[in-house]
Amino acid sequence: MGGGQTTVASVRNQELQYTNIYQEGGDYVTKDISKVLKTSQKLAESLKFNYGEAYVPAASQETFQVEVIGEVNPVEVTESYLAEIISARLKHVFEQIKQDLERRHLLDLPGGIVIIGGGAILPGVVELAQEIFGIPVKLYVPNQIGIRNPAFAHVISLSEYAGNLTDVDALAQAAVQGNEMLRQQPSNFVRPLQTQSISPSRITTQRDPLPQVEAETRVEPAIEVAQSQEQETKTEKLTDRARNWLGNLFD
């Protein structure tokens, strides 16, 4: 139960069976308090944690003062009335979750429901959820010293999961996620060569290995063709001279 949304995950035999996200969370409870009591959201957040109760039957009739926007004098509000505002939003979220879980027959799992997140800190959340779902509900509190708070349960679980990964698991996940380090092209180990352009008036030297290969590919065929034509010209001249010499000899 987070601030902006509520996430549901169903696990069976240590395998994830179902997940869903509901775009309502603790921030929506704060907005409801601010609208109903006509006060600022900052004060509404303070009222939620100082006097808030999610389960109406457990709320008292004690009153507290609320500064109302546009009013000079503060207004007295009972804890029971504040609990009705809070429980109305949480009931709406829990009922949506219940419908989806019943549709997939996931409420029949023997493990019940475990609640984590900052929205689960409010007193009475477990009692309200258990009343709506009709199955055992418990609040998970981390055992780490200094962070025994359900709000940190998600972060702690992700850290422990990442810490238990082996090098092979990490490498496999990096490959699946398309890590750039695993998609690099093999290095080019061609020795840098110096090439010259065909034009005698302009000589250029290439230092980069890749341009050198391209330059050599362009220049070498031209040089080979020129050398072949020169060889053919010399052969023709020798042939003509031999014919003339033989002709003069017979004459």
TrEMBL record:
It comes from the Bacteria. Pfam families: FtsA, FtsA_C. Residues 168-251 form the Cell division protein FtsA C-terminal domain. InterPro entries: ATPase_NBD (IPR043129), FtsA/MreB (IPR050696), FtsA_C (IPR021873). SUPFAM superfamilies: Actin-like ATPase domain. Keywords: Cell cycle, Cell division. GO terms for cellular component: cell division site; cytoplasmic side of plasma membrane. One of its GO terms (biological process) is cell division. This is Cell division protein FtsA.
